[in-house]
Amino acid sequence: MKHATTGAPRALVFGEALVDVIDGTAFPGGSPLNVAVGLSRLGVATTLATRFGDDAHGAQIADHLRASDVSFAEPVPGAETSRAEVTLDATGQAQYRFVLDSELPATPLDGIGLVHTGSLGAVLTPGAATVAAAFDDPGSRLRSYDPNIRPDLMKDHGATLDQVERLAARSHIVKMSDEDAEWLYPGQDLDAVLARMVALGASLAVVTRGAAGCIARFADSGAAAPADRVAVVDTVGAGDSFMAALLAAVLDGPLAASLLAGDPPAPHDVEHALQFAARAAGITASRAGANPPWTRELAGEAHGEPATFPATS
């Protein structure tokens, strides 16, 4: 990626910043935070519109964001920083229990070329209203969304589906996992879910499928990319790394102009972006925790561990 992180922010991410507590150890996390860090590490100047406290966990988050050159508002004095208590199953898949502050700060959109949101901050009150206002803004900028469903906190399926579809309809890019798709649309095949996102208004819809790679739909065409071949340590943050790298690839090439103009993107451009995103997700899955790659790693200087499973897409 060519973008420099100096100067005015080019990307604005709305959503939660929290700590993932794994075996008693806290790691900075939250899907929107991970995407913001991933974007910045790939050279996209990024601001995270979030809220966290001035406690020890908040200090940890602030240090993490500064280390990746992500801009953010000052911690809130006296507020408790959100946390997710994470357990890993035998395959390294993560399960979460949350303590969450869902308020988000309204943030000016001047000079922003991309607005992204996802997960809890996009649908839980009061932060959801802040996100909706940003996505309803008529300015000419890309909008992207990752539902990143958390069933424990999104208990009303119908209400959540309404919110997800409202944001999807206002987004140029929608990405979700196959697990998200099954929760939102039980029993429907992934092609039907992608078609639904495009029918709602998304210019590019993507579903990730873990080791089976990813598939996408846009206009009357489709594309796919295999998963990168890595030895999986855990999957924490892998989907967020995919999202960040996909957005970075869009901003760095011709896709941004096509999506903004409403023109059908070229299939080879979409395939290139998906491959780039899959490689980023693979690097993250090859190491512990939500640790998105830097540009130098995606250039091949540090590319994970030897392969242990084949791509099937």
UniProtKB/TrEMBL annotation:
Segments crossing the lipid bilayer: none
UniProt cross-references to CDD domains, sorted A to Z: bac_FRK
Region (Disordered): 290-313
GO molecular function, one term: kinase activity
Domain spans labelled Carbohydrate kinase PfkB: 20-293
Keywords: ATP-binding, Kinase, Nucleotide-binding, Transferase
Gene3D superfamilies: 3.40.1190.20
Keyword Glycoprotein: no
Family according to the record: Belongs to the carbohydrate kinase PfkB family.
Listed name of the protein: Carbohydrate kinase
